[in-house]
Write a structure and sequence with these properties.
By secondary structure, the chain is of the alpha/beta class. The chain is built from 15 helices and 12 strands. It has a 7-stranded mixed beta sheet, sandwiched between helices. Strands 7-8-9 form a 3-stranded antiparallel beta sheet, covered by helices on one side. The relative contact order is 0.13. The mean pLDDT is 93.
Length: 383
């Protein structure tokens, strides 16, 4: 049995971090029912969400119609958690805001996923991952090829700072509700999650261990023992030889002609010159040759794999961390419990694939379902 078996969560559409939270909950065994619009097409964005939407059942329902809201609230009564990612105030205008939902189910944990939070001067302002990272201090240290701040795709804000934060909030709220019988509202803002992720960075700044100069610090590519290097074949290796014993193993593997300049590993004044010497050394061999050199050592040298290469033997984690299904590489459910893999959830559903099934569970008869479908209030699609 999976850890969240018996937990039921209603997910009201949405893209990005909300579906990511739903995926995590489904991966851990929760029953997640997703509500999509009846006319929701399989757009490019939907294709991007295939992995994020796995493990669900999908109900296609018009939430702008009173009948649709009535059905959704009937589901609210049967759920412990809810996920919504509308702009602040939209759920209230639809008639399925926290006050209404908690009146129907006082034990409900109502999870709200936004960029800027439910209140404040930016609450109604449009934004994306890069904007939330920018104002939280998380983007500035991330350096692109031309020296400009460069976002790490949309993983740090949307998923690390947003979806993970919402998942933790929902689980904490559900635990509390099971003890107290009282639900709550979880305000999960991506900007707040991104700020949380800067905790160690802020500590380093306060202690004087972060200079403020971009590209000259321990974790931003400034340290010669914590950065990436190009190899002779145009590939890359990543080096993370932080501790002295790992650094010693790293230097031994490089087999340089002479010692590096400076007073030691953490002499920042010598880092630029040391990095240049090490970069020249790495360009003398291919990635495969360097991996062979460092194999079996604690030098903390790894290949930089493209996303399409993660199942290769060179990375050493493909079979553990990823699974291939119908030609699509999917990250495996995590974390593991009891030492073994969790198993891959069901694939992403078609829009409305489970509409009739779910409505029947609510006691709605087939002839009534047919009427709702004829009126365009629900949608159905084959498996």
């Amino acid at each position: 049995m999976k850890p969240l078996s018996g937990v039921r969560v209603l997910e009201l559409g949405g893209i990005g971090p909300g579906p990511f939270a739903g995926m995590m909950l489904a991966d851990l065994g929760a029953e997640v029912i997703r509500v999509d619009r009846p006319a929701s097409a399989q757009t490019q964005s939907a294709q991007w969400h295939r992995v994020l939407l796995r493990g669900r059942r999908c109900l296609a329902l018009d939430l702008k119609a009173p009948e649709g809201i009535g059905i959704a609230l009937s589901l609210v009564e049967r759920c412990e958690g809810l996920i919504e990612g509308f702009r602040p105030g939209v759920a209230e205008r639809l008639g399925i805001g926290p006050d209404v939902a908690l009146a129907r189910n006082p034990r409900l944990v109502y999870g709200r996923m936004t960029g800027w939070g439910q209140s404040g001067p930016l609450a109604q302002t449009a934004g994306h991952d890069i904007n939330y990272l920018a104002v939280s201090g998380a983007l500035h240290p991330l350096i692109g090829v031309d020296g400009s701040p460069s976002p790490p795709l949309n993983m740090l804000g949307d998923f690390g700072g947003g979806g993970m934060l919402l998942t933790v909030g929902l689980l904490a709220g559900i635990l509390a509700a099971r003890v107290t019988g009282i639900g709550t509202v979880v305000d999960a803002a991506i900007v707040d999650g991104a700020a949380l992720l800067t905790g160690m960075l802020q500590s380093m700044i306060a202690s004087g261990d972060w200079s403020g100069g971009r590209g000259g610090n321990l974790f931003d590519g400034g340290a010669p023992f914590y950065r990436t290097y190009a190899t002779s074949d145009g590939q890359w290796v990543a080096v993370g030889a932080l501790e002295p014993q790992f650094y010693a193993a790293f230097l031994a593997g490089l087999d340089l002609d002479g010692p590096l300049p400076g007073l030691g590993q953490f002499d920042q004044s010598a880092w630029p010159q040391s990095s240049s010497i090490i970069a020249h050394r790495f360009r003398q061999k291919s990635q495969a040759q360097w991996l062979a050199t460092f194999a079996g050592t604690d030098a903390c040298v790894s290949p930089v794999l493209a996303p399409a290469e993660v199942m290769s033997e060179g990375g050493g984690i493909g079979a553990r961390s990823y699974t291939v299904r119908d030609g699509l590489v999917e990250p495996s459910p995590a974390p593991r419990f009891g030492g073994g893999p969790a198993g891959l959830p069901s694939p992403w559903p078609g829009t409305g694939q489970h509409t009739r099934e779910i409505l029947r569970e609510l006691g709605i008869k087939d002839d009534e379902i047919d009427v709702l479908r004829a009126r365009g209030l629900i949608g159905e699609s084959p498996a």
